[in-house]
Amino acid sequence: MKLLSYFLLTVFTALGPLGLKGVKQQRPNVLFLFADDHAYQAISAYGSNRNRTPNIDRIANEGMIFHRAFVTNSICAPSRAVILTGKHSHLNGQLTNGMRFDGGQQTFPKLLQKGGYQTAMIGKWHLKSNPTGFDFWQVLQGQGPYYNPEMNTADGVKKITGYTTDIITDLTLEWLKNSRDKDKPFFIMSQHKAPHRNWQPGPKHLNKYDGVEITEPETLRDDYKTRSSAASTQAMTIRNHLSSNDLKLRTPGNLTPEQKAKWDAAYGPKNKAFAEAKLEGEALFKWKYQRYVKDYLRCIDSVDENVGRLLDYLDKSGLAENTVIIYSSDQGWYLGEHGWYDKRWMYEESFRTPLLVRWPKVIKPGSKNYDLVQNLDYAETALDLCGVKIPEDMQGASFVPLLKGERPSDWRKSLYYHYYEFPGAHSVRRHYGVRTDKHKLIYFYNLDAWEMYDLEQDPNELKSVYGQPKYAALTKELKTELDRLRELYKVPEDTRPVGKPKRPKPKKK
Ligand SMILES: [Ca+2]
């Protein structure tokens, strides 16, 4: 009897709870790691010639890296809305950063909740309305600061002292370890403020890259002469548009005495040397590039380190095997290409975004994907990963088959893009366009100006071939494709941002 009890106890211990959990845990957990403005050019797995990101690279080495991942509208809040809804900006209503996200609409976290998932959102939200569809949320207010953030929660505002990138990871780990319901699969979004402007490095990296010269991109001195007037009339050049806060010529105002002491110890001597050098012209421009890029890369160092902390925890806790990790950003970014910082354009650096996925035992380690995917696909992919039905009205496609190494024969061959925020910060004109495997056609509709790029001949997009006779037939094809996409995605002909009605013409007296 004693032996039987022992036997039953052993069987129960071995199979009982684990067996039950085994059934529930067949569906994977998902850890969605998201950065803000992370250029793929600043990830070593994408071949960065400026920095190393060993932890983010681990996701690529153990999973899949997407070399042709794009957004639909290269700006923060609109990208987040596309991700949540699986719908283009004109349908989810978030055309620009200034608008308030309608959290009452269908989003994938709500559908995951209904499908039995536990959902959490920690970090940068940036959609003005409170998060909906999450069992737990704790988010930065608006853009949020790099240091000592106040965070909104369902129970009110919480102020936390420390460096925001570290804090977001601390909160993510706290939820994974102590707060979640361990009988349910989870989908957690852990979203950084970094490396968004104005690139304030964390205490550990204030002096990284001191004495190092960061490589300049080939197009840093672009003169915009072979394109429409859109490229030359923006306000995002490293040469003319960085502020003294961007360049760290002033100490940030919200630091604790200890943080301030570290900051001043690092930037005081650097700024003294700069003031004494009295730089002008090209020398000043080179200095600005180095200062800007180094601060940006220092912010990435914190992000990468914190990705490592999460990977380590997943390993140690045993969660790694059944947890899909997705690393991405709300869009790409200019690290000096075309002379710029910021994003917004349909040109490659901001149109593309990093996308790396690890899914043990499903994705072949070290996989590289070159299919056209878009942030429009993230909601559908999340639902598919978690075994929840994808609603008909979502506009993207699950890329789960791509993760499995199976390319659907009807996978998209072209992408639609549409940027709306003009007038607006950095003065980038509204435009829409189509990109195929090898070509890109852009229409700046308020200027009635077209640009076209042959991406094989001109990967840096320095010379528009629009109007050249040898491209006439192809231009016609791309225009037809653009019309097809606008119809497919139900893009209204009039695409002014909501809330900005056309002004009635003043009546003549
Ligand atoms: Ca962004």
User: Main β-sheet, in a few words?
Assistant: 10 strands, mixed
Shape: globular
Structural class: alpha/beta
Examine the coordinates and then state which fold CATH places here, giving the name of the CATH topology: Alkaline Phosphatase, subunit A
- What is the tally of beta strands? 16
Q: What is the rounded distance between the termini?
A: 105 Å
Strand order of the largest sheet: 7-6-5-4-8-1-9-10-2-11
Number of domains: 1
What would the average pLDDT be, to the nearest integer? 93
Helix content: 25-40%
- Low-confidence segments, given as residue ranges, are 1-24, 497-504
- Estimate what percentage of residues fall within beta strands: 15-25%
Task: Kindly report the name of the CATH homologous superfamily.
Answer: Alkaline Phosphatase, subunit A
Bound molecules: calcium ion
For the record, the CATH class is Alpha Beta
How are the secondary structure elements laid out?
Elements: H1 2-24, E1 29-35, H2 54-62, E2 64-66, E3 69-70, H3 76-85, H4 89-92, H5 108-114, E4 118-123, E5 136-140, E6 150-153, E7 156-159, H6 164-179, E8 186-191, H7 257-277, H8 281-317, E9 323-329, H9 348-351, E10 355-358, E11 367-369, E12 373-374, H10 378-385, H11 400-403, E13 414-419, E14 431-436, E15 439-444, E16 449-454, H12 472-488
Parallel strand pairs: 1-8, 1-9, 2-11, 3-12, 4-5, 4-8
Antiparallel strand pairs: 2-10, 5-6, 6-7, 9-10, 13-14, 14-15, 15-16
Helix pairs in contact: 5-10, 6-8
Residues 36-37, 76, 196, 330-331 line the site of calcium ion.
